[in-house]
């Protein structure tokens, strides 16, 4: 047995090397497949029509046509959509963080009869697809005259974001040592000061996770956005981009610029927080 | 001490707003939808109660049945094409190959993009005349394969599945990678010492221990396929000739284009029940101890 192994070390080493090279080649090829469409998008967002349609279709632009970006931002209203998206997303994240941390805290740390039942009910909410609420919400928002306002998106985004956020935060709160709160209360802190100044800072990583998750889902949401808003001045990027595409149907360069503008913030966040983003996606999935 | 943590007013302030939103926006609308689904109603005139007629129509209408078939095909493709690729990549990366962190980061990027962007991007990739795909095919000497991918019945469904595959393969890869990494290295080491090959170790040690995460991936990809909306809505709108239509796009057009609120609600209830059913089935057949 040993002789058989030691008999051909050179050959198996060579095979191993070749295998590794093939494996790396495969991984690189896959990386190209995952990333090249985006690079291609960046390319054509800087080209004019004649270059997109008859020049080097796959390659970089000969001249960088930045005017596509200014056209998309001003004539194509992308700047308006962008500001709307930032506003809706920021308020949503703030409210989700505030409400989910308070209720997760109350569920895991405060003493009341229905805390377990409340948790179960909220966990059930993680399984509800938004399709289910579309028409009833549309009717309610219409009756409340909230259609075509930012609240028409913020309220449902917050409500549907809460279950997962509470789930993530609750598991973190359970890990906070009880003594921290007890000594704070002994020193005369009320429940609010204890919560906001002692406990919340301790679960900062969980808050970042929830914020990232909420950012991605509300920044990218389409179904509610397309149903509840049809007034250009309130549209967010997802819907706005669609109407821009309708307007510039043959001018790919301007469309490309609009698509890039709605993508860049996400990519920047990812490149800055790449580890946290990946971890938050894992945390969001592993709910047992 | 207990007094501070069991003050009823404080507890109400802590959970009250959340419960209000949760009940008002998430829970009650489901029951409202279920009620709407029993009505013949256009949203303007007085609704008529018709019992289960909408559901009967749903299961006898060829357009609705076709949309269900399409979403099941999406689910099947996700499970049998997307997940194996993700698993393979996850196992390779988790084995500690050079550049592991870089590949993981790059593969994951499409996960973060909005589906609207992805749909627009891919509609350009598929463009029959100037798109990236046909140009690429021509450049590598296969011009006869170039065609109108989204425009014809034969290719539309498969072509509209590819962007989903492209978008989420990195997500499942990441989950499975985390699962594979959590397998104790001593076990893998022990298998190696016992003479097991890399492939044998993967199948006998690593994959079985990844079962909990594989179940999560399975549930996510099946449920994701059953409720797919954004991509189809933007990419093909269900066309050509309903070849890419799915229940959620049919629900959407039924409600907001043809104003059949009752029938549309029945479709939305169907989507919820279908998702629940598949979750239960997967959990049942894929039992894990922890």
From TrEMBL, chain A:
Keyword Transmembrane helix: yes
Keyword hit for Zinc: no
GO biological processes: transmembrane transport
Coiled-coil positions: none
Domain ABC transmembrane type-1: 82-273
Transmembrane segments: 21-43, 81-107, 119-139, 151-173, 194-216, 252-273
Gene3D superfamilies in the record: MetI-like
Protein localization: Cell membrane
InterPro entries for the chain: MetI-like, MetI-like_sf
Any GO CC annotation of this UniProt entry: plasma membrane
Major site of localization recorded for this protein: membrane
Pfam families xref list: BPD_transp_1
Keywords of this entry: Cell membrane, Membrane, Transmembrane, Transmembrane helix, Transport
Record-linked SUPFAM superfamilies: MetI-like
Membrane topology listed for this record: Multi-pass membrane protein
Protein family (similarity comment): Belongs to the binding-protein-dependent transport system permease family.
Protein known as: ABC transporter permease
UniProtKB/TrEMBL annotation, chain B:
Residues in ABC transmembrane type-1 domain copies: 68-282
Protein name: ABC transporter permease protein YurN
Record-linked PROSITE patterns: ABC_TM1
Similarity section: Belongs to the binding-protein-dependent transport system permease family.
Record's bilayer topology term: Multi-pass membrane protein
Keywords: Cell membrane, Membrane, Transmembrane, Transmembrane helix, Transport
Location within or outside the cell: Cell membrane
Signal peptide (UniProt feature, chain positions): none
Taxonomic placement: Bacteria, Bacillati, Bacillota, Bacilli, Bacillales
Transmembrane segments: 12-32, 72-94, 106-123, 218-241, 261-282
One CC-aspect GO term: plasma membrane
SUPFAM superfamilies the record matches: MetI-like
Record's keyword annotation contains Lipid metabolism: no
Major subcellular site: membrane
Gene Ontology terms: biological process: transmembrane transport
């Amino acid at each position: 047995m040993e002789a058989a192994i030691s008999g051909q070390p050179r050959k198996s080493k060579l095979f191993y090397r070749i295998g590794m090279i093939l494996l790396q080649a495969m991984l690189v090829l896959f990386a190209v497949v995952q990333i090249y469409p985006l690079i291609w998008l960046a390319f054509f967002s800087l080209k004019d029509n004649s270059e997109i349609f008859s020049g080097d279709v796959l390659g970089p632009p000969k001249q960088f046509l930045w005017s596509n970006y200014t056209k998309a931002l001003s004539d194509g209203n992308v700047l308006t959509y962008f500001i709307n998206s930032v506003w809706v997303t920021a308020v949503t994240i703030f409210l989700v963080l505030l409400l989910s941390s308070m209720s997760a805290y109350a569920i895991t740390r405060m003493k009341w009869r229905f805390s377990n039942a409340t948790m179960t009910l909220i966990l059930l909410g993680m399984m509800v697809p938004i399709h289910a609420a579309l028409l009833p919400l549309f009717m309610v928002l219409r009756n409340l005259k909230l259609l075509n306002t930012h609240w028409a998106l913020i309220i449902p985004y917050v409500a549907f974001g809460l279950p997962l956020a509470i789930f993530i935060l609750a598991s973190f709160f359970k890990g906070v040592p009880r003594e921290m709160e007890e000594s704070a209360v002994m020193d005369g802190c009320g429940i609010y000061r204890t919560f906001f100044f002692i406990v919340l800072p301790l679960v900062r990583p969980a808050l970042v996770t929830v914020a990232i998750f909420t950012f991605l889902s509300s920044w990218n949401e389409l179904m509610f956005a397309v149903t509840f808003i049809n007034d250009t001045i309130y549209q967010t990027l997802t819907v706005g981009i669609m109407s821009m595409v309708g307007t510039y149907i043959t001018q790919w360069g301007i469309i490309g610029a609009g698509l890039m503008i709605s993508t860049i913030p996400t990519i920047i966040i990812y490149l800055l927080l790449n580890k946290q983003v990946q971890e938050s996606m894992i945390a969001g999935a592993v709910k047992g | 001490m207990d007094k501070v943590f069991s003050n009823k007013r404080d507890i109400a302030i802590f959970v009250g707003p959340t419960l209000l939103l949760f009940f008002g926006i998430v829970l009650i609308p489901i029951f409202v939808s279920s009620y709407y689904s029993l009505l013949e109603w256009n949203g303007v005139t007085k609704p008529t109660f018709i019992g289960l007629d909408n559901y009967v129509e749903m299961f006898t209408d060829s357009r609705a049945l076709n949309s269900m078939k399409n979403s099941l095909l999406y689910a099947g493709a996700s499970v049998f094409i997307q997940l194996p690729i993700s698993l393979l990549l996850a196992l390779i990366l988790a084995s500690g190959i050079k550049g592991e962190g870089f590949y993981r980061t790059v593969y994951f990027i499409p996960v973060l993009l909005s589906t609207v962007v992805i749909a627009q991007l891919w509609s350009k990739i598929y463009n029959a005349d100037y798109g990236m795909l046909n140009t690429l095919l021509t450049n590598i000497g296969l011009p006869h394969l170039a065609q109108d991918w989204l425009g014809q019945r034969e290719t539309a469904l498969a072509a509209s599945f590819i962007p989903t595959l492209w978008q989420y393969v990195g997500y499942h890869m990441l989950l499975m990678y985390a699962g594979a990494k959590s397998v104790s290295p001593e076990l893998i080491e022990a298998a190696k010492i016992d003479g097991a090959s890399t492939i044998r170790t993967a199948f006998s040690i690593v994959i079985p221990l990844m079962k909990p995460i594989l179940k999560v991936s399975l549930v996510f990809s099946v449920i994701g396929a059953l409720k797919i909306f954004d991509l189809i809505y933007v990419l093909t709108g269900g066309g050509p000739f309903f070849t890419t239509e799915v229940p959620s796009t049919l629900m959407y057009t039924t409600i907001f284009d043809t104003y059949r609120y009752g029938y549309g609600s029945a479709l939305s209830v169907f989507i919820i029940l279908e998702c629940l059913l598949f979750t239960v089935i997967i959990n049942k057949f894929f039992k894990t101890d922890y």
